[in-house]
Amino acid sequence: MSEGSKGSSLAFGQVVIGPPGSGKTTYCHGMQEFMGRIGRKVTVVNLDPANEAMPYQCAVDIAELITLPDVMENLKLGPNGGLIYCMEYLEANFDWLQEKLAAFRGHYYLFDCPGQVELYTHHNALKNVFTQLAKWNFRLAAVHLVDSHYCTDPGKFISVLCTSLSTMLHVELPHVNVLSKMDLIEQYGKLAFNLDYYTEVLDLSYLVDHLASDPFFRNYRRLNEKLVEVIEDYSLVSFVPLNVQDKESMRQVMQAVDKANGYSFGDQEQRSLEALMSAAVGADFHFTSTLAVQEKYVQSQDKAVEEEVMDL
After folding, report:
1. Contact (CB, 8 A) for 194 and 173
2. What is the pLDDT of residues 36-60, one digit of tens each?
C-alpha cells in the first residue's frame, strides 16, 4: 500500500461522519455485523480520539496514537480545539496509519470519525486524511449520518440540509446522506409531510410556508427562502432512511454506498445476502422495517385526527 503505487490493489470502504449523537458508532457496529453475515471481511478503524466505549471489534484505534483527554489535559484545550489538534496530529503521522492499515489488506474498511461538524464543513485536517487514503488506492464513500428527529422541526431540517450540502462540497468524496434512528422517529413528534418528502428533499417552498406559520420564523421568511434556493440550485442533497436494527434498511444503505464508491461484490456475497434477506423470522435482525415504521407513524397520526374530530 505504498503511496502513489498504481500497481497495488484497490481497497474499498466508508468514512462515517456526522454530528455528535447521530449514531456513527452504532452504525459501524451494525454494518460490521451485517457485512460479516454476507461474507465480507470488515475492518473497523476508530478515528475518534474521544471514543472510549466501542461496541464493535476495533482493528485500528487512534487512541494508540493520541487521545482527546490527554490533549485537553496537557495542552489546556477544550474539546473542540482538542479534536482539531488530534486530527492535525494524525495528519502529521500518516506513516502510523499506513502501517496499521497495511495489516488488513483485502478487507473492507469502516472509518468511525469524530462528531465535530467543523471538521467536515471547513477544517482541512480530516479532509487531507481522506485525500491521503485515496493516494493509497482507497476508494471511499462518505456516509453522513443525521438524526431523523430533525425532520420534525422544519427550521432544524433546513439547517441540516445546509450542513449536509456544505459537508458534501468540502469533503469531496462520493456521498450518501443517511437519516438515522428511523425506528425512533415516531417518538419525536409529528412530521409536517410524508417521509419521502424529507428523504427526496422535494419542493422546499412548502417547508418555508410551513415555517411562516410560526410567528418567530415569519420574520425570517426571506432568509429561509434564500437558504432553500441555494440547496435546490445545487440539487445534491437527498437521504436514505436507516433503522440499523432492520436488515432490509441496512441492505439499502449498503447498496447505496457500494454504488457510490464503486464496490462490486462477487457471486458468493450475493448468495449470502439473498440467504440473509430470506432468513426465517426470529433472527437477530427481526425488527420492524422502516416502511412499517412509516406506515405505523401515519396510522397513529390518522387515528389522532379521527379522535379530535370525534371530540368536536
Report:
1. no
2. 999 999 999 999 999 888 899 999 9
pTM listed for this prediction: 0.84
Contact 160, 34 (CB under 8 A): no
Residue 13, strand partner residues = 109, 140
- SS3 of the chain: the string is CCCCCCCCCCEEEEEEECCCCCCHHHHHHHHHHHHHHCCCCEEEEECCCCCCCCCCCEEEEHHHCCCHHHHHHHHCCCHHHHHHHHHHHHHCCHHHHHHHHHCCCCCEEEEECCCCCHHHHCCCHHHHHHHHHHHCCEEEEEEEEEEHHHHHCHHHHHHHHHHHHHHHHHHCCCEEEEEECHHHHHHCCCCCCCHHHHHCCCCCHHHHHHHHCCHHHHCCHHHHHHHHHHHHHHCCCCEEECCCCCHHHHHHHHHHHHHHHCCCCCHHHHHHHHHHHCCCCCCCCCCCCHHHHHHHHHHHHHHHHHHHHHHC
**Confidence at 309, pLDDT banded by 50, 70, 90:** low
Radius of gyration of the chain (CA): 21
In DSSP terms, 139 is beta-bridged to 12
Contact 202, 196 (CB under 8 A): yes
